[in-house]
Amino acid sequence: MDQRIVLRERIPREKYPLGFPCLIGQGKDVGLMLTDPAISLRHAIIRKEGNRMWIEDLGGINGIFVNGRKIRRVSAVNPGDTIRVGHAQFTLLQSAVASPGHHLVVHAIGFSAEAALDRQKLAAIYEISAELAEYQDMRVLGKKIFSRLKDIFAHDRGYIALFEPGGALKPLLVDPEHAPVPVSPHIVERVFQNGDSLLLRDPSSDDHPAAFKGPLDRKIGSALCVPLIYHAQIYGLVYLDRMIPGAYSPPDLEFLKSIASIFAPLIENTRLLAELKSHYEDAKEVLKKTESRLIETERTAAYVRLAQAMTHELRNPLTVIGGMVRRIARMHPQQEMGETREALMSSVQRMEVVLQEMEDFVSIPSPLVRLQRIDRLVREEIQRCEKFWRCRSVSPRLTVRTPYVLVPVDPNLLRKAFSLILKEVLLTLPKGSPLPMSIDDRDNELEILMGETRSCERFCDLYDTELKSSPWSASLFLSAAHKILTDHGGTLLLDPKAHAAFPVIMRIPRSLKPEDPSISTRQA
């Protein structure tokens, strides 16, 4: 018995006789070629073994459906069964022909037949294509889309959403805005996995699709839901509903499917353009920050060169003055010079110390950080500066109020910053004063407090405008310590209402922030 498969289209009524095995798809090497975006190049194959026939899914995009059920891989088919491949639907029939044997005949209602539209609908599709193609903003495009849909379908609520990789639905456009749309998980599953288009005529009847069964919004009288298909991929859906039962019919569903095929590339291209613009703006922001950082770096480098030049120019005459003062001191007895000698020597020594500190300041390197115990580092530096606080009869006392004392710092630079601040503080404290210090947590930072304060809310940065009138805000010691701390991503805070650079707060971040352009650190 000879058999054959025939694909018969309603418009036009053509037949495509095929032999076994029959390969179905869009590729050039298939036995049955279907020009349907929902069908893969090699979508399925029908085989005959004896008197039995089998259809096998070759991994097509939207699967194979036999009698309305999606097959997993292989399924037996018999005469009378319906087979759906993409948008094409076939009925498998066995018939005899003039030659000996039997033939298999398939009657199909294909996608092209379903999309047959009258002149008015074709004109509407043309107008939509011409009008919406010029909009590149998603919000404006959404308003225009729903305006067009409202003119055609008179919907009460509209919803356009995209599928995420896991199958979840991500709202894109809603009409009216912020309106809840009852798209159930069953609808999402049917549209995303099967590519079905769904029509609800009357929720009170028992013949509406299974996807609409279950608890429905009482306001829904009828609804349409179609997939968004682009490049043979289902990536979203369009949903419309009305309060009136029976407001939509199968021709409305077919018309919305046709319109959705226009919306799909427009929405996807607009979304990709918005994503590209977002990346562009992010890149501009990064470049702006980089430019700002480079300008600041160049400005700092210019200040450093200026300070180096000033230090060099001051050191030469100071060396001459210092030599002359020391020679005069040797030539004349101390009783003859008296206070004049002491004042000159003290001033020369002070200027020499300042010049040395300035040279150290302009040559501060970038931090080379590693995890350090701050409590141990502070205690060691207090001991190292013993001669300074002993000569002032000051009694430092350290209290550690947190067990979390490990932070990423450059130990040498942080020791220097601490000693500079300590020297500045010792200059302001009366002799014999206590010097309480504490280490505590402060959000994501470690705080070192020299002195005592009830609240640190009013404390501000060394270079804040509130401290501009304070003479000690221009201290070379504090400026050098401030640079070291800011290079670590930290801060140096002082009380603008205080009469001296005391109390002082040092804050150091517990983690590195390489994305911050103000930080130039390297991991050790």
Automatic annotation (TrEMBL):
Record-level Gene Ontology MF annotations: phosphorelay sensor kinase activity
Cross-referenced Pfam families: FHA, GAF_2, HisKA
Classification via SMART domains: FHA (SM00240), GAF (SM00065), HisKA (SM00388)
Keywords associated with the record: Coiled coil
Coiled coil: 273-300
GO CC annotation: plasma membrane
Span of domain FHA: 22-71
Protein name: FHA domain-containing protein
